[in-house]
């Protein structure tokens, strides 16, 4: 099976690259290979390659910066995706969306059938991408996920642990909840969906929620991170006692975040016959990988 993957060097893309079978014809596509901003570039690549599956792991993910460059964000997160869909023919397209398509006012976890209402430019752009695929009607899987983390790319986990080595105290928002979801879990679920395509028994085209099980606030997430860091021997100045909960109203950010980012993954679990692991398991693995990276760096300097 021939698989083209846009954003192959990104957080999700690199995790997917690490699990794809070597027997498949894999075509990694980074920013150097194709310019998503240039109209027509994406479609030309898809038509030239004629893959069986296109995975779109390329995205603008700088949520606050997006508020100042809405046209560019829409081009990358929506228009380029529409180009892929229009050029793909009978092949499959797998892409990733976000919990930020919701306003967070719902009391419980969001289902795929719930009405989106994004609060920021980033969420609006991801919703436009979803709507483009549904309108064009190509065979597709949209996997909405949340609070993505890994050891090797910028994210909340890396940022908190870096700041914890620099400062004695950190203020962290405590009134927004969700489920930290590892890039590794996203990669494994994507692989499971790809195997179904390869076996001729694909999932039904459409939208699925993909997130780790459980929930936490950003503050409790930070507490868990710093506790794990100390257990695993990562040097930090700021311990759990130095973490201060703060209201999102007092924490100034350019983009408004939803207070509730919980996603109901029942549909995807039933479709693939899987059970989502806890968010704590994924964060544990990310902190472990960060410790391994730190050890390798220390050894290389001796």
What is the name of the CATH architecture of the domain at 2-155 and 179-215 and 262-278?
3-Layer(aba) Sandwich
Task: Please write the CATH class name of the domain at 2-155 and 179-215 and 262-278.
Answer: Alpha Beta
Query: Helix/strand-derived class?
Result: alpha/beta
Query: What do we call the CATH homologous superfamily of the domain at 2-155 and 179-215 and 262-278?
Result: NAD(P)-binding Rossmann-like Domain
Instruction: Kindly report how far apart the N and C termini lie.
Output: 44 Å
Computed CA radius of gyration, to the nearest angstrom: 19 Å
* Count of DSSP H/I helices: 10
Strand order of the largest sheet: 2-1-3-4-5-10
Percent of residues in beta strands: 15-25%
Q: What share of the residues lie within helices? A: 40-55%
- Main sheet makeup: 6 strands, parallel
CATH T-level topology of the domain at 2-155 and 179-215 and 262-278:
Rossmann fold
Order of helix and strand elements from N to C terminus = EHEHEHHEHEEHEEEHEEHEHH
Given the C-alpha coordinates, what overall shape results?
globular
Mean pLDDT: 94
> Low-confidence stretches at least 5 residues in length (pLDDT < 50)?
none
Short description:
The protein is of the alpha/beta class.
